[in-house]
């Protein structure tokens, strides 16, 4: 049963936007939802190919380090801001700044995060659409016996056809809108309660399938045997950037989910659990994918095409390939949907706080605008592939709308958001706020957390940020 409880109003703060505020029904519900947000295309599509591009095991080690040292502290900070503010990211930041007598300018952390989630969902949904169309391709037996050219052409034809892309992008957004519009408990929580167990089951089935090949050992050593000679500075920075993306950090999503977190739940324990689940799924995805690639004598380092080109080739050559190929793309869709709903939620929560806008209205306004913006990504892949809107600036030369959205969110907005969140909680928010929200007492764990948030996290993020800008 879901409780509908009002978070206690914040003392001294304007409370005019506040209605009954629902809460996750349990700690588990939050863990599933936040893991659903974290586990997405980033784990199953991006992690395997950036791992192979950066030489395997050594990269994985650095990535684990980044998750532990930078990812987890920022996740704790974000969820804490959300729960304490009890509102959309923008209004939670306003509340917290007001409460501690800080500048109103801190509000931009929430605002920028919401803008970033808006932009990310517009292209995330297009890629989710690719996954949907590949469920059909696999189930229809199109991979069976196909050679590299055929599979390459299949992907090429999809990207070059704006109408097909629009169709799948629309189907994906409709799914997301339908879930989010129904609200926290009867929409998101219900969907997540079904989708997350399906996701876990599917990933285990896929790993089981990979174990049945004779290349499982090769996959394991590729992922877990570090060869530091293959690790570059760029690889380290990629690992850090990916830690942000994969944990859905720096953009208010965890704040929005945190705003529905009951007071009695431990933020630290849940943040650690969510990060562990996310990391496990990324590693399992690697264990599911690389053995299939190696078993078929294919190259692991196939870049973004690893999943949409190399893997279908493998499925086409293997026994049971139709079934397992289809299950794999269903897994990808499920992972993408549970992340996409978390990208829409902050925007919808904010709309709901405006006078006279219902949840349904907010979801439709937010969802349809994001859908419309997605058309720019679709056109970037074909008709407008030569349109480079900011081409006059050297940094953005040759970048389509899609490239720009991806670049600006991943390289500027997410790290800036993460940096600002770490600085806000580490240096500005009152000590009492942290002590109230986190059950770490005043001991070693709390001091360590604060030390990391004050010094390590901002330094690491700044280094990546500056490197990316140069
Ligand atoms: N964490 C998601 C993934 O790994 O695919 C992507 C994502 C979701 C990023 C939500 C950011 C976000 F706010």
Instruction: State the CATH architecture.
Output: Up-down Bundle
End-to-end Cα distance, whole Å, is 52 Å
Q: What is the number of strand segments?
A: 0
| Mean pLDDT level | 91
Q: Which fold name corresponds to the CATH topology?
A: Amino acid/polyamine transporter I
Shape: globular
* Largest β sheet strand count, sense and barrel closure: none
Task: Calculate Rg over CA atoms.
Answer: 22 Å
Give the total of domains. 1
Residue runs with pLDDT of under 50 for 5 or more positions: 1-18
Per DSSP, the total helix count is 18
Beta-strand content: under 5%
Helix/strand/pairing class, anyone?
A: mainly alpha
Element-by-element helix/strand order: HHHHHHHHHHHHHHHHHH
* CATH class type: Mainly Alpha
Structure overview:
By secondary structure, this protein is mainly alpha-helical. It has a single domain, classed as Up-down Bundle (Amino acid/polyamine transporter I). It contains 18 helices and no strands. The longest helix has 33 residues. The N terminus is likely disordered. It binds 4-fluoro-L-phenylalanine. 4-fluoro-L-phenylalanine binds next to helix 1, helix 2, helix 5, helix 10 and helix 14. 4-fluoro-L-phenylalanine (PFF) binds next to helix 1, helix 2, helix 5, helix 10 and helix 14.
Task: Describe the structure in brief.
The protein has 18 helices and no strands. It has about 475 residues and is an all-alpha fold.
